[in-house]
Model the fold of this input.
Amino acid sequence: MSKPATGSRIMKIFPIVLIFPAVALVVFLVIFPLIWALGLSFYSYNVLRGEPPIFVGIENYYRLLNSLDVWRRFVLTGQFVFYSVSIEFLIGFGLAHLFYNQFRGRRLAITLVTTPLLVAPVAVGIFHRYLFDATFGIYSYIAQLFTGQSVRILSQHPMFAIVFMDVWQWSPFMMLFILAGLEAIPKHMLESSEIDRLSPLAKFRYVVWPTIRPLVALALLFRTMDAFRTFDTIFTLTGGGPGTATEVLSIQIYRMAFQFFRTGESTALAFIFLVIILLLTNVYLRLARRE
Amino acid sequence: MRMSNLRNNRRGRRKIFRTVLIYFSTIIAVIFFIFPIYWLIATSLKTRAQAFSTPPLFVWEPTLRNFIDIFIKRQTEIEAITGQELELATGAETFFYNSFIVTFSSIAIATVIGVLAAYSFSRYQPHGTNTLMFFILSTRMLPAIVVAIPIYFFYRSLGLYNTHIGLILLYTMFNLPFAVWMMKSFFDEVPRDIEQAALVDGSNPIKVFYKIALPQVLVGLGATIGFLIINVWNEFLFALLLTERATRTVPVMIAGTRGEVGINWGLIAAIETLYILPALVLIFVLQRFLLRGMTFGTVRGAK
Done:
């Protein structure tokens, strides 16, 4: 039924011809470089020195995984992901319940709230530098109004700044998922829960939660994976600084590869990073399939 | 009777309270998410002195000077103050031109290749469709920085470094997974009876594709292109690594101003305002497909 029953040769080749360019491009520009990088991660290589790479086996991996510095970045990245994603979940959850109500101007409000999603990360990062600026920044000004003393957010609380920025941009993403979940709850179930006079808590536990659960799981996993990879916004807001206070993994890899030119080592770290992402993706795909 | 009146009153009051609460929270939420964008646009309409005022100015006489300065002014005020030559001094039009060329070309190619593949996956489901679809999706899960290192060296040795073609090729590839998945989800929604009938009657499969199938997914095609525009227009890391002055795109230029002492925020804000303009327009156009676009077409979302 799904396949047309024409037996001609064209019909056999046609679908493959259509797919070929897409698959070829992906293989050429992703798989090929990846294999090359994997190979290089077993070598000691510095572009600037111009010497041929020296095979060192798993030494790069060994050194990285035994480096306290690298583990500190893991923890730092983990903290950033955890704070951002959990706050985004809470705000998104609240917003979704707010917009689940029907009221005049609701559509417009949703559109305005979701605007940050499409704004370029670089623009977000650079402009938050201005907003957080210790002397001219309006956020610093507001913080000063509340605390009564001047606050240098970017140098004193850099983690707060990058989490705040991420929350600003991505909370609406959570909201979209949870709102879609809420709107998928069958009306009759809500009505019967009213008639049965379920307590709000029981209603949430037995009616709302089961429906929105798969979407919440998806949203959390999407956000976790993306937060792990965050580069543009943090790079343009703090550049990883002050010092290395906000140097998350992706920025550390960038610095290693393109500022210190420890090429072999940086590809090894990139692959460690990749394995973490792949593990997360695997969890996501499993949850998505179950849905 | 008085009892029921009282109850009605109480219910009415609760309803009013609820409405007030809803509007109050909505306004707070909208302000929180819109304020930085408002402030960006506001700053672009301020002079240098106004942008540097403490406390921040909420009322001022707007000026469009920044928007003229970023294009025609070759010697910027910043240059005079810091004595450094800045990228900005060459005028922003080069960067916008580069961004535009790269975005337009890569989307054109990615859309054509992507739509063809999506159609084939949706309709003919050739051998290994699921495997290939997951393979294509998994490339998107790659952190950009992981592929960036090898690509940087490849591009240098292949002579693709600092060329428009190089960036276009890269962006085409990076957006293919999205184009394929998104378009497949739209093709999957269209019933295939007519196409089947036409094929059984012996119609040319190419004709069936563009005469019957394609017109039915035009809206989806538009939405897909909309998201592709955002993806390419916003891309930063590869543009940073693979371009120099002549091919530099807008985000790299904006990021280049980081860390400068005495930045003229009015000028930067003017460039950023023009830069995020497509996003501000597309958020209205794409609103209905937002969830779908952010999940590669895997979550349809509410209509």
